[in-house]
Amino acid sequence: KQEVTQIPAALSVPEGENLVLNCSFTDSAIYNLQWFRQDPGKGLTSLLLIQSSQREQTSGRLNASLDKSSGRSTLYIAASQPGDSATYLCAVSDNFNKFYFGSGTKLNVKP
Amino acid sequence: KAGVTQTPRYLIKTRGQQVTLSCSPISGHRSVSWYQQTPGQGLQFLFEYFSETQRNKGNFPGRFSGRQFSNSRSEMNVSTLELGDSALYLCASSLTDTNEQFFGPGTRLTVL
Fold first, then answer.
1. Which residues on chain B place their C-beta less than 8 Å from a C-beta of chain A?
2. Is residue B7 within 8 Å of residue B107, measured between CB atoms?
3. Which residue, among B23, B45, B49, B99, would best test binding to A if mutated, counting the most A CBs under 10 Å from its CB?
4. DSSP annotation string for B77-103
5. In order along chain B (112 residues), what is the average pLDDT of each group of 10 residues?
């Protein structure tokens, strides 16, 4: 069974710092990997989607990489801002359209 | 394009009652998935519907059920509510070619 782990569970950084969030998964037979952010009590907002054949995706200050063979993905956030404070979740899907979520990294960017 | 919508946004029920939640996917999306999110268990997959058929199912008791209509709108039903069913219920829709999921704002269910 696919298991998704996110480390660290929580992270606090000063504004302006570059940071990396980690996501690992146990089964490399994935269809895609998706990063989300969730604000307290709200739904999930899709940030980046990486298909299994891709190595990375970029959107603005965000860059996500995927290494299927090692079962890892990283989300890089450049020049962090207080508005980036949220919980970041990664999810992998398999070829049967089932999705598996990590427990998230709660990010706090201090002004 | 309108996003995924969920109704109602908030709901308070008592133990033993039943509840129905509704989800309208993004236009053109035929897959709808449901998730339960609690502080202790995180985000757990309930089921997925595609073209009115349940395609995937998570490990939840039979009290949790769902359906999808011909216009792709979906409902989930929870019967005989328990205190532990208090959670944020999230719905997501996706296109079949990319599987990229788009989530609604959720329905906050409180069971007293």
1. 4, 31, 33, 35, 42-43, 45, 48, 50, 55-56, 88, 90, 92, 98-106, 108
2. yes
3. B99
4. EE-S--GGG-EEEEEEEE-TTT--EEE
5. 92 97 95 92 91 92 96 96 96 84 96 96
Mutate to test the interface with B, among A4, A35, A98 (most CBs of B within 10 A): A98
Q: Do B101 and A91 touch (CB under 8 A)?
A: yes
Tens digit of each residue's pLDDT (9 = 90 or more) over A20-79: 999 999 999 999 999 999 998 889 999 999 999 999 999 999 999 999 999 999 999 999
Mean pLDDT of A91-106: 90
Name which of B8, B82, B90, B7 is nearest B42 in CA terms: B90
Alpha-carbon distance of A106 to A88, in angstroms, equals: 6
Q: How many CB pairs under 8 A join A and B?
A: 53
β pairing state of A32-38 and A86-93: antiparallel
* Chain A nearest C-alpha distance from B105 (Å): 4
H or E stretch at B30:
none
